[in-house]
Each structure stands twice: as C-alpha cells, then as structure tokens.
Amino acid sequence: MLDWPDPCTSREFDAAAQAYALAPVEVPVKAPVVPATVPAGARIWASGLSRAQITARHIFPDAELHIDPRLNEVDLRSYADREWPLPLSVWMFRGRLQWVLHRRRQPEVRRESRARAREVLDDLEAAGLDCVLVGHGFMHSCLMREMRHRGYAGTYVQRMSNGQILVFDRP
Fold first, then answer.
1. pTM greater than 0.70
2. Region 15-25: what's the mean pLDDT?
3. Which of 13, 20, 94, 128 has the largest CB neighbor count within 10 A?
4. Which of 58, 56, 59, 61 is nearest to 46 (CA)?
C-alpha cells in the first residue's frame, strides 16, 4: 500500500505515481469467494504489474497464470510542472482530464487505452475461452466500457474495490 503525498508538488506526484506501479498490494487473510458463475477451468489473466499477479495468485492459487501487459493500469502523470504543492485530488483530476482530452503530457491518452481494451477483448473472444482478468481500476473501466458496447451482460460499476470480482457473459 502506498501513501500518496497530499498536498504535493508535480515532482512529488510523479514520483508517487511511479512508486504506485511497483507498490505491494495489501492481501486479505482470506481470499474473496469466487462466484459460482466463474466457470471451472477459466483461464486467469493478470497484468504485468506485480500487485495484479499477487492478487490473482491469492484468489486462484492453483490456476496457471497468464501475464498480459496490455492489462496494466493506465499510467498517470502530473498535469503540469509546478513547484508549489496542490491537493492530491487536483493532480488526479487534472491528469485524468488530460487523458480524456488526449493531451500528450499523459503517457497514454483515452483513445490508446480504449484501443488496448479492444485488442485484449478481440484476442480473448477469438480464442473462445472463458477467462478471468485481474488488473487495475482505470483499465478495468476501459474494459467494462468496451464490454458494454459489445453487449456483455454483467454488473457494471463506476469504481472497483481491491479484490472485487465482477462476472460478465458474452452475448
């Protein structure tokens, strides 16, 4: 778990964002209950970031884990170079706003994140396998948006919590 500095300068924010990508995950003592609707033998896919892999192994300890960096979180950078501290919420909001508006200051912009989500789903659908994706909140939002567009049935949430399991069925 990483404590983000609040308030912080742009340099502090960028350092915390990089550290977050490598931060350890807080694993609960008891793994979440996997819903009965997750098919037995489903392939387990995790992002290339260690915290997703640790979570996947905690929930599915006996499953073979497939790593796909396309499931990595959408990186975030400070919206501008500023030496005076601003509230963390300002850095987060303005950085994500730049992502939405396709500003190149961000490492990846919305159209690129959405293309990544489409590519992942295209590949998984072509394989025709049941699968579980273990990743990160913002990327999962992109995946859920694409699944909704494709007509997947399931519970769509605005914000996922750590270890939360959502089940979607292809049309």
1. yes
2. 88
3. 13
4. 56
106 with 33: CB under 8 angstroms? no
Least confident of 2-6, 24-28, 58-62, 77-81: 24-28
Coil, strand, or helix at residue 110? helix
Q: Is the pLDDT of residue 133 over 90?
A: yes
- Contacts within 8 Å (CB) and 24+ apart, 141-150: 142/74, 142/113, 142/114, 142/116, 142/117, 143/117, 144/168, 145/114, 145/117, 146/114, 146/117, 146/118, 146/121, 147/121, 150/121
- By the 8 A CB rule, do 116 and 109 touch? no
- Locate all alpha helices (DSSP H) within the chain, ordered by sequence: 10-22, 50-59, 88-100, 110-127, 137-150
Amino acid at 48: G
In angstroms, the CA 20 to CA 10 distance is 15
- DSSP structure class, residue 42: P
Q: How far apart are alpha carbons 155 and 37 in whole angstroms?
A: 13
